[in-house]
Each structure stands twice: as C-alpha cells, then as structure tokens.
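Q: Given only this backbone (475 positions), what sequence would you predict?
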C-alpha cells in the first residue's frame, strides 16, 4: 500500500527543541566524546590530528584539527544532519562511524555550539547553536562564517585539505574542569586515553597517524606488550587472542610497571579488550560474562577483534564504548577462553609471588628454613627467630618450653609422603595468603617492633624484607 505525502489521516510533528536537550544526556564522558570526534578524522584518512583546549578566562573552547580529505559544501551539509548515516549502510572497514550521530551528540554532551570548518575545493562552514534552535524553535544550521574565525590561531586552521571542529559555549565541560589547572589536567588524561583507544593507529603496525593534545604527542598503549600469547582462536570472523601478562617482578622500573597497568590500573585493566576496525571499544573488564575482577587474575588480558559488519550482532552502542557478547557459540567460546586465561594468569601470579618471596627475602627471614642433615636428608624447620613467632611469645606470655614443643609438633607432623605422592600426580595447591591479610599482619608486626624500640622506617624495612611480606614492597 502506498501512502501519499498529502493524507488527511496524518499530520506532521517535527521534533521539538527539547529533543536536543535530551540528546545532551546520552551518556558521553569528555574522553568518549573526544574519541568519537577523532573517529571522523581517522576515517577521513588524516595523518595528523591536533587537539587544543583553551581556558579563555572561564569561557573554555575546544578545537580538533585534522589534515584529512575534508568535505565539500554538499558533504558537510549532509553530515550536519543528526543521524546522517544508517547503521545498516554498507561501509568500509576503515570507517569508524556507525550512526552518523557521534560528533554532533559528543559535542552537545559538553557544549552548546558546534562549529565545523572544512576545506575540500574551498572552505565550507556549518554551525549548530542550541541557543538559536531554542529561540527560533527550529532546527536551524548556521552557514555564515563567524567573525571570531579571523582571529582564531592560524596553527589551528585547516590549510590545504582538512577539517577543524570548534566547541564553544562549553557549559557541561565546566562540570569536568572549573579552573584552568583542571582543564589542563583533563587534557593530560585525554592524551593517555586516546593512546589506548587509537594505539594501533599510533603504532607502526597500521596506517600511521599522529595525535597531539596541547602540543604533547600521544603515545600508543599496547595492553599486551610483553605478554605471553596463549594462542589464536577464530570463530565467525572474530579473532580472539588471550595473554597472560608478566609478574610485577619483570618490570625493573616502577614507572614501567605503572604504565603497563594502564590508565585505570592493573586490577581494572584485566579482562577483555574489544577492537572494532582496530579502534578500541572496550578497555578491559569481563563484559557480561559474570566474571569478577580479582587480584589474582589481574595478569589476564584477552584481545577480541570484531569487524564493522558485526555491529548489530555485538550491539555496539552509540558511543562506541560498550558491546554485548552474542549468545550461542561465540559467547560459549569466549567464556571458555576467559576462564582458561584467568586460571593461567592466577598461576603466574601465585607461583611467582611464592618464588619471588624466597628469592629476594633477607636471609633467615623465612617462616620455614631448609636444612641438610649429616646423612644428606633434607628437613624443614620453623624459623624461631621470625618476628611473628617472637610476637606470639611476647603477646601471649607463652613459655619458651611450650613454644618449642608446639613448633616441634608442627615440624614432626608434616605429611611428607602424602605431599610427595600428590605433587607427582595431581600437584599441590597452597592456600593463598591474600595481600590485604598480609598488609594487616605486617602492620601488627611493624607496631610490635616499634614497641621494641625500632623507628617506623627500621621496623617497616625489616618486616618487608621477610617472607611472606617481601612481595608487598612492589605491589
């Protein structure tokens, strides 16, 4: 059935201005909004992208300049529409867009005015200003180049080809930065964030791009650098690459250790990284697999590459920051790989912690000491000089005879034969001493030594040189 444009059964009800205000609360953060704008620069084959934030005496503005292909007058007019593209449209794997909403809604989440200057066979300009839309109650797009553009910094203007986006009336940006110092800190944080999202484009592995934020070059962050690759899995054009990261003792430089931890730190950065068109969508976590972040699995990281045709199946959201793992074979495989990777990471964490403790702890500081008897047999004795043994004797007034008897009972009751049999068959699992528990006990021992006349530094140095507390020095 064909419905004519003139039909008495229907009337036109164009969107009201209130829709714009609703769209402003679409869930963007400053970082995700900026990344959405830079997606357009990457899709435009830009080689250099410049981001600048200006405090402007409390009336801040933000600029993004690229040297991409730019837009003609007609192309710019089309791209200023809200939802200028359908997510069902065919697109190349280099196109990082999805709905044709990103750079508009990302802007409105932070600012009330969006200005776009672009050069492709001449300079073209368009402007969305929510104040004008509100006053006229019409979705009006400005075409006249504003007077302030003449005095705009030349270094931020497109020259031959390219696009400049300028946010003005940044009312909601002020929720993130209410002083010039906070604004520059926001820029610094953005630089690190972009290094994660666009790491593959910033590295030499792909089409090389350069990003600068406030004249600081954005450095790529590879979530699995120095990781142990556990093997590629493929299903329905989805690539899954699980890794276990090195134990913290691998990093000789504390700054390198923190850098490898990522923008959110080691615990938060464990889990799954989803890339779409080589652009990072999900930056760690376990998605909706009902797995929790855990101290002992923080060395587990899994890279998943999906293609742009998988958007609907993976339910990539408007902001390109969330996905939903599809049900069925894909979900089952990812869940299986996740559990396997977590187990492998936990093994690295536990084994290295135990061996590291004994390799770098101070001599005679172990709870158990290994001794070779005259007949060549190895025996294990509890270290009576361990600070915790001393604390127990002092705090509970246990006589030396009773303490020695208790220690002797424990030493003589070690089930050595059972341990040997289990070790050769199923292996031995030692219950882990949680870091939080270690820290609590360490503080008790430090206070005990302070009561004995040690300074806090002397007490801390002594306890953190003993097993099992030595691993806490770098955690």
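A: Predicted residues:
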């Amino acid at each position: 059935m064909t419905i004519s444009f003139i039909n008495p059964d229907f009337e036109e009800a164009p969107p009201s201005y209130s829709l714009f205000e609703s769209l402003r609360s679409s869930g963007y953060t400053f970082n995700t909004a900026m990344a959405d704008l830079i997606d357009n620069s990457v899709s435009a084959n830009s080689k250099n992208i410049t981001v600048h934030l200006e405090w402007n005496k409390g009336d801040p503005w933000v600029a993004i300049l690229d040297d991409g292909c730019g837009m003609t007058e007609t192309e710019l007019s089309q791209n200023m529409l809200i939802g200028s593209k359908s997510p069902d449209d065919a697109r190349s794997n280099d196109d990082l867009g999805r709905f044709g909403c990103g750079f508009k809604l990302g802007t409105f989440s932070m600012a009330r005015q969006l200005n776009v200057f672009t050069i492709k066979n001449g300079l073209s300009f368009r402007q969305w200003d929510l104040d004008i839309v509100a006053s006229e109650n019409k979705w009006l797009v400005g075409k006249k180049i504003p007077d302030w553009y003449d005095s705009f910094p030349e270094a931020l203007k497109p020259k031959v080809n390219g696009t400049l986006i300028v946010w003005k009336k940044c009312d909601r940006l002020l929720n993130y930065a209410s002083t010039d110092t906070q604004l520059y800190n926001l820029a610094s944080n953005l630089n690190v964030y972009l290094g994660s999202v666009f790491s593959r484009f910033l590295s030499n592995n792909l089409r090389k791009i350069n990003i600068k934020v406030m004249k600081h070059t954005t450095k790529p962050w590879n979530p699995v650098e120095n990781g142990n690759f556990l093997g590629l899995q493929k299903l329905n054009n989805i690539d899954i690459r699980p890794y276990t990261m090195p134990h913290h003792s691998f990093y000789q430089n504390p700054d390198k250790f923190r850098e490898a931890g990522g923008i959110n730190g080691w615990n938060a950065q464990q889990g799954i990284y989803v890339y779409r068109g080589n652009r990072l969508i999900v930056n760690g976590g376990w998605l909706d697999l009902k797995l929790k972040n855990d101290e002992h699995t923080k060395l587990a990281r899994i890279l998943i590459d999906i293609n742009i045709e998988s958007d609907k199946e993976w339910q990539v959201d408007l902001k390109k920051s969330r996905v939903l793992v599809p049900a069925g074979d894909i979900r089952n495989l990812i869940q299986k790989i996740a559990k396997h990777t977590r187990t492998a990471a936990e093994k690295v964490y536990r084994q290295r912690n135990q061996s590291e403790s004994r390799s770098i702890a101070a001599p005679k500081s172990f709870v158990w000491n290994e001794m070779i008897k005259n007949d060549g047999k190895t025996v294990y004795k509890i270290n009576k000089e361990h600070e915790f043994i001393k604390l127990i004797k002092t705090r509970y007034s246990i006589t030396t005879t009773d303490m020695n008897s208790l220690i002797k009972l424990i030493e003589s009751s070690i089930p050595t034969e059972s341990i040997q049999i289990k070790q050769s068959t199923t292996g031995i699992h030692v219950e882990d001493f949680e870091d939080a528990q270690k820290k609590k006990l360490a503080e008790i021992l430090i206070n005990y030594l302070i009561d004995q006349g040690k300074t806090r530094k002397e007490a801390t140095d002594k306890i953190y040189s003993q097993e099992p507390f030595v691993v806490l020095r770098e955690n």
